[in-house]
Specification:
With about 140 residues, the chain is mainly β. Helices cover about 0% and strands about 65% of the residues.
């Protein structure tokens, strides 16, 4: 019997609307008033739209990615984003470098699904010259 490689297993499907659960999350930054993430995941395509709301102001980031590990370069709101998305077993890893002018930061987010209850967990590590933090975001699946 041959070994079952990670590539041979069915990957989790992150498709859905996910809402921030502050009670279950552990953040080292000030939490937003609310966050919603909409994901359309059809392997290897991965579309994500994230909206944070703070004091009636919202910040939306929309990305179209592929999960095969190739590097992509995007420009969003004056920030150059160089990154790649790849699988580590059943965890989807976003490994990005953010560049604004002379400032550069790294942001690594590990996404996984939790069965009970249906939650999206995002373990984030952000590093720059001036700001460093680690967050665990828990997002509950919005019921239809």
């Amino acid at each position: 019997m041959g070994d079952l490689r990670t590539d041979d297993r069915k990957k989790p499907d992150f498709t859905g609307v996910w809402v921030f659960n502050p009670e279950k999350s552990t953040l080292q930054i000030d939490p937003p008033d609310s966050t919603a993430i909409v994901i359309n995941h059809r392997e290897p395509g991965f579309r994500l739209s994230r909206t944070h709301t703070r004091e009636n102001a919202s910040d939306t980031l929309s990305l179209e990615l592929v999960t095969d590990g190739r590097e992509l370069v995007l420009d969003q709101a004056g920030i150059r984003i160089r990154g790649r998305v790849f699988w580590d077993a059943d965890t989807l890893v976003f490994d990005t470098t953010l560049i604004r002018g002379e400032d550069e930061a790294t942001n690594i987010v590990r996404y996984r699904l939790s069965d009970l209850p249906a939650s999206l967990i995002a373990e984030e590590s952000f590093r720059s010259r001036s700001v460093n933090y680690d967050n665990v975001w828990v997002m509950d699946r919005k019921k239809s």
